[in-house]
Fold this protein.
Amino acid sequence: MITRISLAEANMKLLSNLKRISLDIIAVISIVLLVVFIPYNLFPIEAKLGLLSIFITKFILVSAAVIHAHITRKLLFPYIDFKQETNLSNNIMIITWYAMIIFAFSRGG
């Protein structure tokens, strides 16, 4: 059953979810800014390329995947409250949803 919530409740849920993923958002923004604004004469070109590839494949993709998984889960399955869900299959579906998106992002797709 889908229930209607007030705008204040929706804003409170949005803020609590943003607080939950704030570390990932900060990590993505800081890594992108670091890669964009790194001084050219600080590292040799090989080190910069290696650093860039590590940042992109390990940090940006996984952090972006967590954010993407959370947003799509809240949009597609708003009726599943993970804390109060009594049906185990719904909880397993949400865990699989997160794992699938994070795995796909980390593999580069």
Summary: The chain has one domain: 17-106.
